[in-house]
Amino acid sequence: MAAELAVHSIPGISISISGRQKLKLSDHQAFTLPRSPYLFRPKFPLLVKNRNVVKGEKHLRAVEEEQLQASAVDTQVSETDPSSSKLVLVIGGSGGVGQLVVASLLNRNVKLRLLLRDPQKATTLFGNQNEDILQVRKGDTRNANDIDPSVFEGVTHVICCTGTTAFPSRRWDGDNTPERVDWEGVRNLVSSLPRTLKRLVLVSSVGVTKYNELPWSIMNLFGVLKFKKMGEDFVRKSGLPFTIIRPGRLTDGPYTSYDLNTLLKATAGERRAVVIGQGDKLVGEVSRLVVAEACIQALDIDFTEGQTYEINSVVGEGPGCDTEKWKELFRSAQIQQMAFGSPAP
Ligand SMILES: NC(=O)c1ccc[n+]([C@@H]2O[C@H](COP(=O)([O-])OP(=O)(O)OC[C@H]3O[C@@H](n4cnc5c(N)ncnc54)[C@H](OP(=O)(O)O)[C@@H]3O)[C@@H](O)[C@H]2O)c1
């Protein structure tokens, strides 16, 4: 059987893309290096149904609220799994990917707990939610003692999408560097998680296994890829059931300052088709919405346990919230890796 990667998408709600917001070198999501590794073509040609990869976008995409054409019906997703018994802890829920994870889980009526450095951000982003559905706790992952053990009580699943900028920026203020966040923060978090956990999903990055090689070494000038890899390895050795998602360069959003309804209407524009690989060979870009959905899907798909996936998105239709289609995508990546790849790092 040919190992063909199926390409699917997040369902179609259209947005307009504005290129007014220029990328800044100081932003992790704004790798303005002339030849960003995230934009390099894969050395290993992935077999995809739609290879219409969007090339070289140099501007951050911004959602223009007034042009959102979504209907609320399109965004309704019902959680069919035993959501009543599920309590998902999200760390980094105020970030670009994290707020989409939170909004989408709220839309699925999944109980959530957020660990935020500034709990007030939850109200700004998600409005006043019922405590039965959304609990917010204060904590900084860099300081193990800062995290009250009660944060982890009853938690069944965890999605960690914390991060900081790859290059020095104001977001490093107070020593919030890649070393502190992507390594020490992840280590502290993982060390505190209950052994009864059903799944830990960690958002990392493509290129973490190649941080000594050009062009990744440029991205890694301040260690972001190295420290993300250290965080990954700690997760792998933790004995906890994990899935690691490594996005390419993130596009769309962040949607900070939008309210929950707007977040739910955010879309990946035309970039809805999903490409998943293994073995750290994939390069390119991916919509934050696609990454958020991948994290949510991985929580419940048994065979993604213990696996690491790279993820991109390209122009085309895609899986939306259809679990069967996501299973096909994850499975295809594993088949391709088994058929053609070296053991996934
Ligand atoms: N940008 C890219 O192109 C790219 C490419 C590949 C992978 N990634 C990775 O993908 C992930 C998601 O990216 P993103 O753009 O959604 O991230 P983001 O918008 O930068 O959000 C980062 C989140 O981490 C939280 N955080 C930072 N330091 C923390 C700390 N010490 N303790 C607790 N929480 C902390 C932030 O909270 P505050 O609100 O308190 O700051 C925020 O919620 C990150 O790991 C990023 O490195 C990004």
Question: Can you walk through the features of this model?
Answer:
This protein is of the alpha/beta class. It has helices at 72-75, 96-107, 120-126, 178-192, 216-219, 224-237, 260-265, 288-300, 323-340; strands at residues 17-18, 62-63, 87-91, 111-116, 134-138, 157-160, 199-203, 242-247, 249-251, 273-277, 285-287, 307-314. The strands form three sheets. Strands 5-4-3-6-7-8-12-10 form an eight-stranded mixed beta sheet, with helices on both faces. A two-stranded antiparallel ribbon has the order 1-2. Helix 3 (120-126) links the parallel strand 4 and strand 5. It is globular and about 45 Å long. Residues 1-36 and 39-76 have low confidence and may be disordered. InterPro entries: NAD(P)-bd_dom, NAD(P)-bd_dom_sf. This is NAD(P)-binding domain-containing protein. It comes from Aristolochia fimbriata. Residues 92-300 form the NAD(P)-binding domain.
Our measurement of the CA-to-CA distance between the termini, rounded to an integer number of angstroms, reads: 25 Å
Q: Spatial order of the strands in the main sheet?
A: 5-4-3-6-7-8-12-10
Question: Helix segment count?
Answer: 9
Bin the helical content: 25-40%
Pfam family, one: NAD_binding_10
Protein name: NAD(P)-binding domain-containing protein
InterPro entries: NAD(P)-bd_dom (IPR016040), NAD(P)-bd_dom_sf (IPR036291)
